[in-house]
Write the structure tokens for this entry.
Amino acid sequence: MKTWVRVVLLIFLGLFVGFVNGFLGAGGGMLVVPCMLAILPIDPKVAHATAILIILPICVVSGVIYAFKGALDINVFWPCLVGTLVGGILGTFILKKLKNDIITAIFSLVMIAAGVFMIVKAVV
């Protein structure tokens, strides 16, 4: 694939993921990782690490906008922030130690579980 085509695809990927993240409040990593793996000849560990760095500014900007609009529950934010920071640090160290096929299997299972949960919540 030509470099300029790849750059254009990645820009559109960023636009799509940014929209979904801002609109739904989540889903960036579950979209970015599979798309990067499809578009780029990239190692899954690198894709996951890059997705985290891509999603950070999107989440900060979206979160600030939602906070200014009064759509933020501060009683939920702080405990989740602490847990997310600790979990993120632990996950980073574990990611380095696992093989790519294990990472892909875990990621796939998490995506399937999230999808099933959302379908059940929508129906019930």
Summary: Residues 3-123 form one domain. The mean pLDDT is 88.
